[in-house]
């Protein structure tokens, strides 16, 4: 009988946790991604590369990424939010632990003769002044019989997981922004090089036309066309140089650097990075393990589910054990005497009888928040699948466009060569040469832009696949103590 009573007491103290237990949701995914047309750089179902920026084989880019994790302010702010979430978890967990406090006081009191003492004559020689010493240690413990505190702690821990996933999302976004800006920078520089080369050619053509004019083999119209071509080419350079400066500053901002801080380092022209021969994309079912937004949505759903349990627990009685022990005396010499000691010990039972609908309203609120979080999780998964599929399609199509533009460049060069030969032979006007040169520059610029597009789409694909945030993984210290 005693053993049964002891077991019942132990179970009572251990309590039970009401409300739904969280089960991670499962969404049926296709076995593999859709097939795309074969290209020079194709996707395949291999393990996703979490250090994908190395696939561009650019040492300068690798250096910039190595600085990003420690210098980017958005990543640091996200880490601070993790620290906040962990501190909130510690605060919530402390509510389920016993608390203990000590207090001591001393008072010197003078009784008023015009107060309550005026109702009765004090005894002759009564001392109206006295000292008062107190010493008390108090403790309390919420037994959390139905798990309100435990569910609150569970929700806070899920909130910490959400903050950690959000930090990964910030890291992945800043990484993708840096790499994409770097690709645009090198693409812009390639267009600057092409335009400067074309400027030299049209200046040479202008000199040639002027010589032929002096010989009587060219007209004033030919010179006007050549000069217009020079002015047009010169006018294309300022916007490109402005774009280069803006991209360098954008990369610097990601590294928390002031404007022009990277100008010496990045203004030097470098070739456009190439893309890998193959891009591993894994399987659709693996996205939930990598994508920070899916991980964050999962953690938010977990927290919302735990808060439903806390709301349900608020309908049940709550018991708090309280106790105190101390000493009281009017004399310092009696302060530690046995007769000066006192204590108090006992439970406090709190039973919710009438709350005006507050508890039920809170439960309905938490249940609808859980429903919203479940829908948000589903939406995040569907959006992830769509982003990967769109990026894979765009990557294949961009490579096809690059091939077409490359063919156009070759054909336009042949046209330009023939036009110059015909002009020198006097078989055509300079207008034909001018048009051929414009077509060459346009197609070469389009080729450089197409190469940049391939690279930035590949960055978008890597971002959609969810890998890469690991570069910024660092520990956030826990805050422990009182």
UniProtKB/TrEMBL annotation:
What Gene Ontology cellular component terms go with this record?
A: plasma membrane
The record's listing under PROSITE patterns reads: PROKAR_LIPOPROTEIN
Q: Which InterPro entries match?
A: MdtP/NodT-like, OMP_efflux
Q: Name one GO molecular function term.
A: efflux transmembrane transporter activity
One Pfam family from the record: OEP
**How does the protein's chain sit in the membrane according to the entry?**
Lipid-anchor
Localisation per UniProt entry = Cell membrane
What is the protein's major site of localization? membrane
Q: Which domain of life is it from?
A: Bacteria
Q: Does the keyword Lipoprotein apply?
A: yes
Q: Does the keyword Repeat apply?
A: no
Return the SUPFAM superfamilies for the record: Outer membrane efflux proteins (OEP) (SSF56954)
According to the record, the signal peptide region is: 1-19
The alphabetical list of record keywords is: Lipoprotein, Membrane, Palmitate, Signal, Transmembrane, Transmembrane beta strand
UniProt lists the family membership as follows: Belongs to the outer membrane factor (OMF) (TC 1.B.17) family.
The name under which this protein is listed is RND transporter
Which organism does this record belong to? Answer: Gluconobacter wancherniae NBRC 103581
